[in-house]
Amino acid sequence: MSSTSNFQEAIREARRSALVGPNVIRNALPFLGGGLILTAIGSWGGLGVLSAAPQLFMPTFIGAMIAELVLFFVAQGAASKGNNGLALPLLATYSLLSGYTLSGLIAVALSTVGITGIIIAAAGCGITFMAASPIGSNLSERDGFALAKTVQLGIIALLVVLLLQLVFSFFGVFTPTFLEIAISGIGVVLFVGAAVVDFFVLPRTYRDDQYLSAALSMYLTYINLFIFILRLLIALNRSR
User: Fold this and answer.
1) What is the pTM of this model?
2) Using one digit for the tens of pLDDT, what is the confidence trace for 33-81?
3) Is residue 94 within 8 Å of residue 213, measured between CB atoms?
4) Per-residue exposure over 145-170, b if at least 16 CB sit within 10 Å of its own CB, e if not
5) DSSP state for residue 206 in the 8-state scheme
6) Quick check: helix, strand or coil at residue 23?
7) Closest C-alpha among 153, 158, 148, 150 to residue 205
8) Spatial CB neighbours of 13, under 8 Å, sequence gap ≥ 6
9) CA angle 183, 61, 122 (to 5 degrees)
10) Do residues 26 and 215 lie in contact, with contact meaning Cβ atoms separated by under 8 Å?
């Protein structure tokens, strides 16, 4: 949900302005990398809790989810105002909590596709970054905004499907494997598109000193891409 909100805001802001932060992505990259490292540390901590005290994981998971949502909106507000001194520790904490809540999926991945699957998902994110940079940076205004709108609508539709999945799971109705493969595959395609859109939209949305806002947007893109690649690999493994 927070990913969709951030994406919609970026599109709206980009429509109002020309290129305002030509160096914002370059400035954001160290913080994007730091956030991903903190996420990995948070996941490692979550796996430790799952191993040592599994009965504590679900209560702490719920608490981390709530704190994560609150931190997202507070940190996003501080970063958009250029208050980097406040936003940075908030985003660091958000990244750690995000890793903790991701550890459940990591545990499932380790038991199905193994460490190889996790490496493939991470490598897929890296390859996407390298491909998205030249493509997104060289999109025309018309093509860039058309792609952005398409991806935006697709992510909203995907969010609705995921919420329905969650609701049905409460009643013991789980998604068939073939449908999980389709949903995960669509998620991968959409967030690959979002990675391309980031390189077009962010320099038109944020000034160079708003690099933390840009880092947060890119962080959400690559974390979601990682999640959907992992989900796809897990679903494909279960279909054999």
Assistant:
1) 0.89
2) 999 999 999 999 999 999 999 999 999 999 999 999 999 999 999 998 8
3) no
4) bebbeebbebbeebeeeeeeeeeeee
5) S
6) coil
7) 148
8) 204, 205, 206
9) 50
10) no
